[in-house]
Amino acid sequence: MPSKFTYNEEALENLRIEDASILDRLIDDESFREGNLKKHRGKVDKRITLQEAVSKYVSDGDIISDTGFSYVRTPMQVYFEICRQQKKDLQFIGSPNTNQSYVAWAGCSKYSHNSYIGAEMRGTDRNYSRMVKDGRVKVLSEWSHGSMGLGFKAAQYGAPHIACKQLLGSEMLKYNPFVKEARDPWSNDPVVLVSALHPDVVFIHCQQADRFGNAKISGPAVNDIALAYACRKVIITCEEVVPELVMRFDTKDTCIPFMIVDAVVELPFGCLPGCCPGYYYWSREWWEWLIRNALKSDDTVKDFLDYWIFTTKDQFDVIEKLNKNLGGPKYLHTLQRLEKAEEYLIEDIGVDFSYEPVIPKTE
Amino acid sequence: MSTPANPFEQLAYNIALQIQDGQIVYVGTGLPMVGAMLAKKTHAPNITLVYESGGQDPWEGPMPWSVGGAATFRRAPMSMEMAHSFAMAANGFVDIAFQGAAQIDMYGNLNTHFIGGGFWDFRSRLTGSGGGNDLSSLSENVILVGLQDPSKFPAKLEFLTSPGHLTGGNSRREAGLLGNGPVACVTQIGVMDFEPESKWMRIKGLNPGMTVEIAQACTGFELKVPEQIENIPVPSDDVLQVLREVVDPHGIFITFPPRVR
Predict the structure, then answer these.
(1) What are the pLDDT digits (tens) for B195-218?
(2) Burial (0-12, 13-18, 19+ Cβ within 10 Å), A34
(3) Is the pLDDT of residue A124 over 70?
(4) Rounded to two decimals, what is the model's pTM?
(5) Cα A360 off chain centre by
(6) Closest residue on chain B to A167 (Cα)
(7) Taking CA atoms, what residue in B is nearest to A190?
(8) B176 to chain A nearest CA, in Å?
(9) E strands, chain B, where?
(10) Which candidate in A121, A132, A157 is best for mutational testing of the B interface (most B CBs within 10 A)?
(11) Three-state DSSP class for B11?
(12) Is the preceding peptide bond at A243 cis, omega within 30 degrees of 0?
């Protein structure tokens, strides 16, 4: 199929992309605008369940954006549900894009637009490395955090592209079809042009939203305000649905307006086993279990996903298993307490942040 | 008397010494964080820490476990977005950024993409750039941090993720990049800097017990050797006490040999 746009040829060749039409939707401003014009405009109650939201809004082949920051305000329970519903051929984009790894292993995602996959000092993602190497995942573009963030910002601000100083001199320029080196028309200095980016679908976890989709994010927004405006289908997941009047009388942290939101999912504990600012800490034990043990081989990944995703139906089943493995019903409370103490919302003197470095085992 | 500094503690101390009071410092997790906290608790109390996810100027508290976690926005007056946090660097509000990498070459260019082959036949794919390329491209000064050995300090990178001085000389500026690029490289051996003209890595100072020969044996390219090499001091008992009791009381980053965490 002929592609609609003129991509960086060297990048297409280096990335061995034969059919570049697979790239088109990500930067198609025109169809993005047309889609938005057709969106339902009414201020209506948009609440649905997570199962409905994933079923209705995630289509096979969609470009889906990871949100939050790897495991901070990232709706991991959405990705678990995508795995359960066995969506196919998703392109993952994200800055960071950490959660693609297990979704890809579950057979749901074949393509990556990457700036980062991993968990910082906890180590590199051996599962993702294996899957890229044996072709189960194909990288379609290489990014830095900042350059991808600017692609989302360009989309938010209605600009077809944005010029920046990142990526100059980097080999990523040769592995990204969506960026082009150019000259600034005024100074003649080298710049990199980053196309506006429009992923198909995004789930953004907010602490609070009203039933129409007005939403509050506390803590770093990372790329999520930009993504809410940049993406074609926008689903807000939230810890709590609050009355509309909360939004009107307390505008602090409100950053996503209802008009651009397609659906609202009340999803308490939706970021577990990651963290939600103001609510709960991330399960460090779970993440280390994943990174250090479970990613070792396809077999260990399979066991891990069977246990945490395919034999659970929702976040409460996950909580039950976290409690069971990590110290009983008190564990969830510990996560809540650690988050609030680290944010200094509660007194932190006497709060113990240490934890057993022993990685738990499934029975 | 405290027990002498172990290699990680010396490294954290050397990192801290790179920071001057009043600077805005962009930090990642791990030893640069320890060094920055140590600086703040000793000679540089008025530094401001900023993080890529958007956290800035957190109230002092526990060591961040993640550059997106609560300690990075703990009671912060405001939190920003990722695009803003890198814009701060581009606009001249980041004095120092710390960077680690799987590979560092003689011009301070970095690879965080893969090792052991090419783009398709690597032995191990790594994390990718993250904010590394942005900080390298935009910050005023970049400080590299690593454990020095010939495979991590090769003459040729397997992939150039983040630009240092590119091919040396004026090539960084000609490429259109901002800032001074890498100004120092802090390792268990000591501190390297870059020759002003060629921008080739050279030894600036050596840690106690280290020699030019050891430094060279730990490097996959020829290190420049100046006439004068500083002898880097060991941290004082007072500094060690702050490091061990205040900055990293659980020894998460400074225990040697490293423990599983």
Answers:
(1) 999 999 999 999 999 999 999 999
(2) exposed
(3) yes
(4) 0.96
(5) 26
(6) B133
(7) B176
(8) 5
(9) 24-26, 48-50, 96-99, 103-104, 110-111, 114-115, 124-125, 141-145, 182-186, 190-194, 201-206, 230-231
(10) A121
(11) helix
(12) no
Burial label for A59, CB within 10 Å (0-12, 13-18, 19+), is: middle
Q: Specify whether the CB–CB gap between B133 and A114 falls below 8 A.
A: no
The pLDDT tens digits of the residues spanning A37-68 come to 999 889 999 999 999 999 999 999 999 999 99
Other beta carbons less than 10 A from residue A316's beta carbon = 12
Contact yes or no for A202/A227 (Cβ under 8 A): yes
In this complex, which of A167, A221, A353 lies closest to B62 when CB atoms are compared?
A353
Residue A168 main-chain phi, psi, to 5 deg: -60, 135
Q: Compute how many other C-beta atoms are within 10 angstroms of the C-beta atom of residue A2.
A: 7
- Kindly determine whether residue A142 and residue B68, on different chains, have CB atoms separated by under 8 Å: no
Q: HSE on the CB side for A78, CA within 13 Å? A: 31
Domains of chain A: 1-277 (3.40.1080.10)
Q: Which residues pair with A109 in a beta bridge?
A: A90
Pairwise CA distance, residues A28 & A309, whole Å:
34
Question: Per the CB < 8 Å rule, is A220 touching B54?
Answer: yes
Strands (E), chain A: 63-65, 90-94, 109-114, 138-142, 161-164, 179-183, 190-195, 201-209, 215-216, 233-241, 254-256, 263-266
Q: Name which of A114-118, A256-260, A288-292, B43-47 the model is least confident about.
A: A288-292
Q: Which of B70, B124, B137 sits opposite A339 (nearest CB)?
A: B70
Q: In 10 A of CB A133, how many CB atoms? A: 17
Closest residue by Cα to residue A32 from A196, A146, A224: A196
Pick from B29, B74, B178: CB nearest A342: B74
CB burial of B157-194 (b: ≥16 within 10 Å; e: otherwise) equals bbbbbbbbbbebeebbeebbbbbebbbbbbbbbbbbbb
Residue A1: per-residue pLDDT:
77
Task: Calculate how close chain A gets to B186, using CA atoms only, in Å.
Answer: 18
A168 contacts B176? CB cut-off 8 A: yes
Tell me the β-bridge partners of B250.
none
Q: What is the CATH number of domain B7-247?
A: 3.40.1080.10
| Chain B residues within 8 A of A16 when measuring between CB atoms | 120
Q: Angle at the Cα of A171 (from A7 to B191), degrees rounded to 5?
A: 155
- Considering only alpha carbons, which residue of chain B is nearest residue A224? B81
Give the pLDDT confidence of B41-100 residue by residue, as tens digits: 999 999 999 988 888 899 988 777 677 789 889 999 988 899 999 999 999 999 999 999
Please tell me the distance from the alpha carbon of residue B179 to that of residue B195, in angstroms, as a whole number.
16
Chain A residue with Cα closest to B31: A121
Q: Three-state DSSP class for B180?
A: coil
CA distance A310 to A81: 9
Are the Cβ atoms of B86 and A275 closer than 8 angstroms?
A: no
Contact B163 A169 (CB under 8 A): yes
Cα dihedral A151→A153→A156→A160 (10° resolution) = -50
